[in-house]
Amino acid sequence: MDCIFCKIIAGKIPTKILKETSSTISFLDAFPLAKGHVLVIPKNHHEKIQDMSHEENTDLFSLVYLMISKVDSLTGGTLVAVHNGKVAGQEVPHVHVHLVPRSTNDSAGTIHSMFNSTLKLSESEIEELYQKLKI
């Protein structure tokens, strides 16, 4: 497999590992969007979060929880981002959580600034989505 994250996990690509568990690893992003940009990834190769086992998800997000306090201490705010699949903007097809320190003078905006417009949905469209998504 030609996955850069799998190569990092295998020790074939050097990285600055911040914390490691039996199934998850966190490290400094090699192409940071801000000083202190961290990635948290599962050691097993999975493209999407829902492909992971419950235990792997629990471990991944436990490490996200642990690391976010450290990242947040840099600027006082942290963007937590997951692109879940190629259509969602995932560049590396291996689950990864971005922890990006944010500040008031950075060039990034709100999540709504990523999109050109806000949808206007009818009540029937909202109800249809509600029925499809509720658990």
How would you describe this protein?
The protein has 135 residues and is α+β, with helices and mostly antiparallel strands. The chain has one domain (4-133): HIT family, subunit A, CATH 3.30.428. It contains three helices and five strands. It has a five-stranded antiparallel beta sheet, covered by helices on one side. It starts with a helix and ends with a helix. The model has no long low-confidence stretch (mean pLDDT 95).
CATH superfamily: HIT-like
Major sheet characteristics: 5 strands, antiparallel
Class from secondary-structure proportions = alpha+beta
Please list the strands of the largest sheet in the order they lie side by side: 1-2-3-5-4
The tally of domains stands at: 1
- State mean pLDDT (0 to 100 scale): 95
Distance between the termini: 36 Å
For this entry, give a set of tags.
135 residues, alpha+beta, HIT family, subunit A, five-stranded antiparallel beta sheet
Quick structural summary:
By secondary structure, the protein is an alpha+beta fold. The protein has helices spanning 4-9, 54-75, 123-133; strands at 17-20, 24-28, 38-42, 78-81, 97-101.
